[in-house]
Amino acid sequence: MIGSSPQTKQDLLNELANLRDVELNFWLDIEPERFAHAVGEAWSAADTVRHLIKSTAPVTRALKLPRIFLQILFGQSRRTSISYRDLVERTALCWRAVARQVDFRLQRATCQQMLPDGRET
Q1: How many whole angstroms separate alpha carbon 66 and alpha carbon 69?
Q2: Is the separation of the CB atoms in 75 and 67 below 8 Å?
């Protein structure tokens, strides 16, 4: 059902459970050494996940507030919401970009380590 638009609360809960499983499998497919490996000054995948958890916690707490408080604090939205399908597609694009970035940084670091004079590839 991933990518379809949930129509009921139960559909939404089922879809969220499916997405959780997909994301969990994405992270479990990365070997622990690669997950924790930072390349130069860049963050490791583990650092990025830690940052995402810390930065989304306040948003989660804020979304539990009554809607009127959010409207008072931030005002009305000036644009329409995107569809659930578009949200899933955008999220998937972002995760693929993260995966490519992790692979690129690791490949670059491996190549740099292999060159005796320290030249960049």
Answers
A1: 6
A2: no
What is the tens place of the pLDDT at every residue in 27-66? 788 888 888 888 778 888 888 888 988 998 888 888 899 9
Tell me the pLDDT tens digit for each residue of 86-115.
888 888 777 777 777 666 665 555 555 544
Please give the model's pTM, rounded to 2 decimal places. Answer: 0.46
Residue type, 115: L
Where does residue 119 rank: exposed (0-12), middle (13-18), buried (19+ CB within 10 A)?
exposed
Closest CA to 109 of 40, 45, 35: 40
Count CB-CB contacts under 10 A for residue 110: 11
Quick one: pLDDT at residue 112? 52
**Euclidean distance between the first and the last CA atom of the chain, given in angstroms as a whole number:** 42
Structure tokens at 11: 């559909």
Amino acid in the structure at residue 51: H
HSE-CB for 120 with a 13 A CA cutoff: 2
The token pair at 119 is 């030249």
Rounded Cα distance, 82 and 105, in Å = 32
